[in-house]
## 1
Amino acid sequence: MAPQPDPEAGAAVKAADRAHVFHSWSAQELIDPLAVAGAEGSYFWDYDGRRYLDFTSGLVYTNIGYQHPKVVAAIQEQAARMTTFAPAFAVEARSEAARLIAARTPGDLDKIFFTNGGADAVEHALRMARLHTGRPKVLSAYRSYHGGTQQAVNVTGDPRRWASDSATAGVVHFWAPFLYRSRFYAETEEQECARALEHLETTIAFEGPSTIAAVVLETIPGTAGIMPPPPGYLAGVRELCDKYGIVLVLDEVMAGFGRTGTWFAADLYDVVPDLMTFAKGVNSGYVPLGGVAISSEIAATFATRPYPGGLTYSGHPLACAAAVATINVMEEEGVVENAAALGASVVGPGLRELAERHPSVGEVRGTGMFWAVELVRDRETREPLVPYNASGEANAPMAAFAAAAKKAGIWPFVNMNRTHVVPPLNTSEAELKEGLAALDTALSVADEYMR
């Protein structure tokens, strides 16, 4: 499908949006959303015929790109057969989706509770943990994002939490490891790991182990900066949770389903949580779907005791049919293997090469198709290119970088002082090199803001 310019239609779409759509995380009169005419594979285009290579995968969810014909066909076939059915019944698409997911989750996470997305998956995982342990508190990291619903946004660590944080949610935040901006004055990954674990155990001790239901962590934090944990950290958290009878919840909403070059990021660290949340890539975002993968021990808590939670659209047949088709496509087409291979041979080396040429790049980190480029004003001091949570004129350098990237033909994922490289997992080598060339151009603009 090729872009066909139709500015008049685009103007009508834009006018209706501005008149009636209330956008998330936005000051409504200060935004200017792009009117999108179509999308296919790793690209989308506007009504003026401009095409963009999507280096955001939507919101890091189109893991197999847009409009994959096999998934589109599966949704159409399911719609013709059974568009919807209540969650209390056994439905083929729902059962098969659960089976395929459970076959790929680590350890004994064999029961699947379906939700509508990642935020409510986190909500339900924490409810399960509290009911299982009989304890009220949850510990989560400052550099994190877990969703926008009430409990999920409170366990979130970034500034989007602030407006909803009434200090009554039973949440305590702690510092997770991040050597580039260490809170522990560490000089090596080994020091960062050891000191972060000591800090977490001290937090547990001072909060009272008998009051803590769960520790929730993104296996690899996503929006907060794609910070792979140092070797041994997640295993150490697992040990602390076992020591104090705390449920370990790993949030794989963004990192799961091949994004890191493995089915789940937990596979990289050989760690099995008690509960694991997922969404986004489970069906490439074609129909809203999320869920909680549940260990046998926690599932047993609700064997004869009703679980007090549910959703009208839990395991929606259209969403589950899309999940079945997506997982099968990923298996048949080697999508996870492609993410691992091209991440190692093209994306990682390409970004590190850009870092050598552009002084505004402070650090490159990531794995698979999950990378972050940290932009700075000064490499020596590591001063971020823009201040924490910058907006308006203070954010001008990142706004200029993003505008340059779009002009060069890619749609960038920009958050604070970083750009994330998170294209669809089946993006080709040629497309990745096209995107890296566009980033090269945009980074020259960022370089102009160096001190």
## 2
Amino acid sequence: MRTKNELYQEAMRTVAARRQVARARAEDARAEAEAAIPALRHAEEEVRVRGIRCALAGAAGKDRTEAAAALADAKQKLTALLAQSGRPADALEPRFVCPKCQDTGSVNGRTCECVHKVMQQLRRKEIEALSSLSIASFDTMELRYYPNRADEKVGGAIRPYMADLLADLRSYAEEFDHHSESLMLFGNAGLGKTHAALAIAGIVLEKGYDVIYVSSPDFFSKLEGLHFGADPAGEEETLMQTAAGADLLILDDLGSEFNSAFLISSLYSLLNNRLGAKLPTIVTTNITDGALLEKLYTEKISSRLSAFVPCLFAGDDIRTQKAAE
């Protein structure tokens, strides 16, 4: 899990590499064109010289009319030479991925939107490496796997209930902002909770927000290993700060981790910090009994989770159904 600053630095390196590639390709194109068009180098030099004279005239406060006309004429001759060889007027110019910042990563002293886009792509790859985000979307959640039978817990037939729930979760993702509520997706195993959480993540990432996904057992196990082992770089604190400060945190599979005093303390701190900062969190869990939840995680944590909007997933194990097909 990388911090926002680490993502930013990597994104800037990516953008800088793009600029180097664009400039190198432009130099190759220029060398090829000059070899094919004998008069091209002279025409380019004329443009350069006329450009300098025009700039000097302007800097000296002189009338630039004559110098500007000479520059325009030199550029026209260069364009004509390129056109005669079947090349466009900008054939010698670098083709930057982002024309707005020309792959510098900055526009008018501010970070270009292309850098933020690269950061989103990097975060998405990170989540994909930890989960099944690459195949998770609401469009791939087939309602046919949810039975049409009635269930008193949902107050009617399961399939239409799940159709409404998934539609609500999609709307949540599409309307996501820093004021969005926290959600608890709970229900028995194999009902699509993680899939839905990752579908939300995909949409929220596209909206430009930073999303952190962690598997509860893996995350807290790593924290505990760092806490009681060697951690010279302070990775434990960095991981907690990154998770606590994300625009959206997805804490997957709560309840499957090894319970310990350290886990309780860390989980409480994480939830408390995010609730205090009013940052949305999505928790998925197979625990459907509130009393068991409180027994496992103490009343203080149960109280924090009670502030989450409950989203009950109902039906039969979808993975079992798919395996039988």
## 3
Amino acid sequence: MSDFHRIKRLPPYVFEQVNRIKAAARAGGADIVDLGMGNPDLPAPKHVIDKLVETVGKPRTDRYSASKGIVGLRRAQAAYYERRFGVKLNPDTQVVATLGSKEGFANMAQAITAPGDVVLVPNPSYPIHAFGFLMAGGVIRSVPAEPTPAFFPAAERAVAHSIPKPVALVVCYPSNPTAYVASLDFYRDLVAFAKKHDLILLSDLAYSEVYFDDSNPPPSILQVPGAIDVAVEFTSMSKTFSMAGWRIGFAVGNERLLAALARVKSYLDYGAFTPVQVAATAALNGPDDCIREMRATYKRRRDVLIESFGKAGWALPTPTASMFAWVPIPEKFRSLGSLEFSKLLVEKADLAVAPGIGFGEFGDDYVRIALVENEQRIRQAARNVRKFFDGADSTLHNIIPLSKAV
């Protein structure tokens, strides 16, 4: 396996190391509170499941579907963008349904990347943002993840010192893993930057509906006039409707880029199972009370996480969006790095989190905590952490230098 060219280009999958320790602990009888993977535990809406059941077995639904998505689903996504963002899209040319946003992103990378092409990617960022281009033969150059004015001088330096000139820039807000949220003003500057440097913009908006300030929902980059000239945006049903395993997402925006994506997909898949697409259409066209309930659930969990972990001695930043908290490792453990600290949490606190190094080297002082357990389990995790912290100075001197533990 290690001799295969594309496999050699991929770094070790660090999350798997934590998963192995977690599995071993559970096999030994440990009750692990798993806040590692961003895998929604909430049920899909009942009306969506009912539509799936109603459609399965109907004539023709077992046949191959359309790789770019059935017409009704693409129309429903276009209608969602007009309702939510005030952005009008042509469902025939500016919307492509994908097998989740991850597949869409990876295949877009295949469509637009030539060997050696340079792509600007936030660091830390969701792994597919970099690895999709690495697998396509591209080269990654890091830019800051935080959407502040400081982003642009750093991005200018990245463009100036890249040979060949970068072809694309990736952004993700609300961010996985950092939970940063971009403003429309930032997107305006970003579109101007992309046009100045002739860059393709790829925006990951998978967490568009997971936000906690009702007066300030996250914007779409396509709200910027002229953004559609250079941008494609990826969204997903996974978090908005708790349909992660259904594998339905979308790419919307620039017609030329989407035509390239559709061409690649036409060689690789026949689209999602038709009843799943019909049910996803019902989700997008249906009532939005289920979305409000989802947001309220994650907000309650976020508040419990911040409050209970704070009492346990671990102060967590309060995320304003996404289903994650991006948390600095406590100072006394920071020298271990995020992978070893995450292993310690499994072994000593029965808690699984995602090590920040898995999202890029600039994430190694952090861990990502996902809001994928109920409030009771989150409080249990906090009690476990408190017990671990209270005993760490006397029990971990062989792991943590004594100078760090006092």
## 4
Amino acid sequence: MARLAQTAGLTDVQEEILSTVRAFVDKEIIPHAQALEHADTYPADIVEGMKEMGLFGLTIPEEFGGLGESLLTYALVVEQIARGWMSVSGVINTHFIVAHMIKQHGTDEQKRDYLPRMATGEVRGSFSMSEPELGSDVAAIRTRAVRDGDDFVISGQKMWLTNGGTSNLTAVLVKTDEGAEKAHRNLTAFLVDKPEGYGEVAPGLTIPGKIDKMGYKGVDTTEMVFDGFRVPAGRVLGGQTGRGFQHMMDGVEVGRVNVAARACGIALRSFELAIEYAQQRRTFGKPIADHQAIAFKLAEMATKVEAAHLMMVNAARLKDSGARNDVEAGMAKLIASEYCAEVTQEAFRIHGGYGYSKEYEIERLMREAPFLLIGEGTSEIQKTIISRGLLRDYRSRG
């Protein structure tokens, strides 16, 4: 058993889940990730395996057919899956965010309708806030929903939609006319049912083809274009307009823990590859791991892996306790994503010229790690969140 990224105080059930997932990753994901990633092929067989394991219902309450596990369990599962291939963790990330939002904020009818089908993977969720000209300024959303009888009519364009083509339920944040002075109070989250696929999937709703990316391949990333798309009023999350920003930010806190977990997984895999290679590759009559320059790199990499893991676990446990965790989730996401990029690059350097070859796994990880510096808010956004929280908690009395 490796000593890095271990978590104290887990229940027997949590240990069993993680052991099962780790074995699945080693047997079903790592051996196939390279070929699937290089071909940009959706991991359909792996997804079916996750369905059979019940992972799509991991955090959904037992009363709705799920396993009823905590955010911590989810984060540790994501860490292991990302260790195998980050794109697979992307398949379940947005699904978990949407399930969490429905569980926490949905009406009773919405919970009964969606959660049992989400637990089995029959319904798979995606999550949409960003727009082509939006960036991190969520309050500037332009996509608009206008009331028309028993429906809302949505028009506008969303961007960077993970699982845009393979999901059949999307939580979408749009502007509604609430008359509020503060822009974020004029935002509403809708639960949009849609068919899988690309093109005009429903009247007034188009999912263009996949965006070609440097990394994070296999999982589909798309735009979402609304042009007079009608949504029943009963699909307003929670049944009341104007609360979408709060609902989405709750989901984003879960997402930030997820991104931290993904970064931990990639960093851990990069370290595993580096320390194995460093003991096999020989120069000047001995393994390069015996050279102090490489040994010190391994020591620093392992320390960063461990630090990121501990901060991720802390953020997840705070969220599970019901406490506010915006600062801790931001810290975890910040340090895990930055350390992931650093650890992956050091692993790449340890591999030398072979790290540049597509035959070696580290080449793929080098293309995947940068995404985590951006997803769920850049490092600069995390620093903004952290500093605001600190100033709130340490307000000067002078």
